[in-house]
Design goal:
Layout lengths: L2 H15 L20 H15 L2 H15 L28 H15 L10 H15 L22 H4 L7 H10 L4 H8 L6 E3 L4 H4 L18 H10 L9 E3 L11 H7 L6 H8 L1 H12 L1 H15 L21
Antiparallel strand pairs: 1-2
Helix pairs in contact: 2-4, 2-5, 3-4, 3-5, 8-13, 8-14, 11-13, 12-13, 13-14
Bound molecules: protoporphyrin IX containing FE and 2-acetamido-2-deoxy-beta-D-glucopyranose (2 copies).
InterPro entries: Haem_peroxidase (IPR002016), Haem_peroxidase_sf (IPR010255), Peroxidase_pln (IPR000823), Peroxidases_AS (IPR019794), Peroxidases_heam-ligand_BS (IPR019793), Secretory_peroxidase (IPR033905)
EC number: 1.11.1.7
Subcellular location: Secreted
Length: about 325
């Protein structure tokens, strides 16, 4: 192909592909004309909710992550199917927070009760704004959020377990899943800093605090080191016959504050999940952990940039999407 021809070909290809480049659709102040007060409606509903249920903060942040990694940021995580074939009935999503879902429904109701805004704001955007607001309301950075996502029409159980990271993942497994979503190792490390708030159930790390007999010829379960005093504390919260509802805070130092203590915990070998502690144990990611542990501003800046990239994953446009009337079901 001649150079000029190639240029025309590339330009045409770009025009054909451009509508599929989701990022081109998102922008700040997307609802400036259709629902100008949307951000203040969202933030006041969020702060109201956090007064009665602080747990909704962590729950909402996690829900946004799980939405974006499974079929893109399209609120598919909110859909409920009568036959149970939906994301929140599967894998890691079964422990998504009921308080977070309640918060999203409350925001949707508050927006739609404003006659100018009725049925104009997508549930996917509501989740993105709410996730932004819980971060700043718990002490983290505040940042402008890109909007303009449509709500997806599909939610299935099967895809969940292939789409979300396991707490037993090592650095290579974490990186390859995040790379597949367009996120770098630094993005992955700063997003893991979301574990500065919220809880985990005992089953997610029980293998780290007891030695289980291995079946013959199976490889020992991989386990990064843990502070011994801390391990003994965790055994009190999670005895070997732990109850299914028992939880511990992911950041034991400042569990209710969005800060960089998560990274300091990792330096002290007090990361709860194996996937947390490995970020310090593996030499390839340790320098970034040390940097975020010593400089909260650097962590916050990196977190904002990674959240923005996270929010662009798999955004729906055109007939693939809609503005849902009810966040838990397709129109
Ligand atoms: C890097 C890979 C990640 C893994 C393996 C992972 C795994 C987990 C696990 C196992 C839990 C506990 C769930 C339970 O017991 O109910 C959890 C909780 C949580 N995760 Fe992650 N996560 C990861 C990344 C992220 C990201 C990127 C975010 C958000 C940006 C996030 C936000 C949260 C929050 C806020 C909680 C607490 C939820 C609550 O208290 O309701 N996680 N995560
Ligand atoms: C676990 O076992 C101990 C001792 O047998 C018992 O006292 C405790 O109530 C049990 N805990 C749970 C959560 O079943
Ligand atoms: C912390 O990080 C910020 C943002 O990257 C940078 O501007 C600042 O110089 C850093 N502070 C120190 C003490 O290194």
């Amino acid at each position: 192909m001649e150079k000029a021809q190639f240029f025309v070909f590339s330009a045409v290809l770009f025009l054909v592909l451009a509508p599929n480049l989701a990022t081109a659709q998102l922008r700040q102040n997307y609802y400036a004309n259709t629902c100008p007060n949307v951000e203040s409606i969202v933030s006041s509903t969020v702060s109201q909710k956090l007064k009665s249920s602080f747990a909704a903060a962590a729950g909402t942040l996690r829900m946004f992550f799980h939405d974006c990694f499974v079929r893109g940021c399209d609120a598919s995580v909110l859909l409920s199917a009568a036959n149970g074939d939906d994301e929140h009935s599967a894998g890691a999503d079964v422990t998504l927070s009921a308080d977070a879902l309640d918060l999203i429904n409350k925001i949707k109701a508050a927006i739609d009760s404003n006659s100018q805004c009725t049925n104009k704001v997508s549930c996917a955007d509501i989740l993105a704004m709410a996730a932004r607001d819980v971060v700043s309301l718990t002490g983290g950075p505040s940042y402008p959020v890109e909007l303009g996502r449509l709500d997806g029409k599909v939610s299935t159980r099967a895809i969940v377990k292939y789409s979300l990271p396991s707490p037993a993942f090592n650095l290579d497994q974490l990186n390859s899943l995040f790379f597949a979503n367009g996120l770098s190792q630094t993005d992955m490390i700063s997003l893991s800093g979301a574990h500065t708030i919220g809880v985990t159930h005992c089953d997610k790390f029980i293998r780290r605090i007891y030695t289980f007999k291995q079946a013959p010829r199976t490889k020992a379960v991989w386990n990064p080191p843990m502070n011994l005093w801390f391990l003994r504390q965790l055994r009190k919260t999670c005895p070997i016959n732990f109850s299914k509802s028992a939880v511990t805070m992911l950041d034991n130092q400042t569990p209710f504050k969005f800060d960089n203590a998560y990274y300091q915990n990792l330096q002290g070998l007090k990361g709860i999940l194996a996937s947390d502690q490995i970020l310090f144990s593996d030499k390839r990611s340790r320098a970034t952990v040390n940097w975020f542990a010593s400089n909260q501003t650097a962590f916050f800046e990196s977190f904002v940039s990674a959240m923005t990239k996270l929010g662009r994953i798999g955004v729906k446009t055109g007939s693939d999407g809609e503005i849902r009337r009810v966040c838990t079901s397709v129109n």
